[in-house]
Amino acid sequence: MKIWRPYTQMQDAIPPARVSHALGAHIFLQDGQRLFDGISSWWLITHGHCEPRLMEAIRRQTERLEQVVFANFVHQEAEELSTRLAGFLPPRLNRLFFSDNGSTAVEVAMKMAYQSLQQSGKKRKRSFLTFAKAYHGDTCGAMSASGDSAFTEAYTDLRFPVFRFRQPKDLSPEWRAEFRAFVEAKHEEIAALILEPLLQGAGGMIIWPAEIVREISEICRAHGILLIFDEVMTGFGRTGKMFAFEKVGVVPDLLCLSKGLTGGALPLALTVATEEIFSQFLSPQKLLFHGHSFTGNALSCAAANANLKIFQEETVLEKIAVLENAHRRALEKFALPNPRVLGSMGAIELPEQSGYGSAKSQELYQKCFSRGLFLRPLGNTVYLLPPYCASSDDIENAWGVVAEVLSENRS
Question: If phi over 0 gives left and psi between -120 and 50 gives alpha, with beta otherwise, what is residue 357?
Fold first, then answer.
C-alpha cells in the first residue's frame, strides 16, 4: 500500500521530505534540516506548530470525550466554542453549523442559501454569483462556485452552472458599472454572492480594496441577494483583523470558517448563519439535510477553544501588524517584482508565465527548500503566509532566499 499525495503529479513527483517534528515557525526533517514554514502548512497554523496551550487542551480532552453523535448530543467544548466565538462575531451571526473542512463549510453555506430562499417562496433564485479567479474548495459545489482553472478543469462536467463575473484588470468605474448592471439584470435568478473578502487566495493572492468589496456587497444586498463570505483562509487574523469582513465593514448572511479555527491543530469548520436564514428551516419538511460523522468533534473543539483563548488574552493582531511591516520592508529591500502585502501575507508576481505545478514553480520550490524555506508558488505568484510566531528576521531571511534564487535563475 502506497500513499497518494494531494495536488501532486505522482508519475514524476519529488519524493516527499520525511518530517521528524515541528515547532513554532519551523519544520524539522529526519535528516536534521530545519525549514521555515513560509505558508503555515497550507494556511493552517496560527500561533505556531505544536503550540503548548493547544497541545495541552487536546491532551486534556482525550481523557473526557473524543466524539459523540452531534445530532443527538452536545458537549461542553462545543458550547464553549459557541460562547467564545460570539465574542468575536457580530450578534447578527448567531447560528453555528459544524463540519470538518473549508470546502464543506462552503458547501453547507450554498445549501443553506439555496434551500432557505426556496422555502421562503423565492423559487427563481436558483443560482450563485462568483468571480472568475475565485477558489472555494474541492467538493463539487465549491468547485462550481470557483473559477475555471487547473483546479477544476478535469471536473467540468461535474460542476453546475453559476454566474461567474469577469475578473477585472483594474477595479475601474467601468467595471463597477458593468457589475451593477449585471446584478440589476440577473438578481431575480441569483440566490447568493459568494466571495473571498479582501484576499483571493488560490487565485493568486489577489487583494481587493475594502471599498470595492463593500460596494459590490451593497449592490447585491439591495437586490435581495444573500452574501456568503468565504473566510476559510482570511479568518483568524490573516488580513490583520480577526476577520476580513471587519475591514470591509459588511456583515455577511453566511460566514465560512476553517483552517485557522483550531490553530491548525485538528480539522474543524463552521458555517455561521443569521437567525433569518435559520428560521426558514423550522418545520419538519424544511430541515437542513446535511451532517458529518465527525460533526462537532470534541477534540477539535477543544483545540479551537484554546486557539480563541490566545486571541482573547494576547495581542495577536499586534504581532500580525509587525509581520505586515516586515513584509513591506523586505520586499522593498530586495526590490522584488510586483509586491503586495495584506496582514501576514506578502506576495510577488513573476513576469514569466508559469502554471500551477509547472517546471519553473517546481524549480523555485526546490531551490528555496534546499536553503531552508518551505513555500508552494501559485504559478507565477510567490507568497509568504507564515505563522504569527514568526519574527521580522524570519520574514526578511525568507524573502532574501527568494531574491537569491530568482537572481540565480536570471543569471
Answer: left
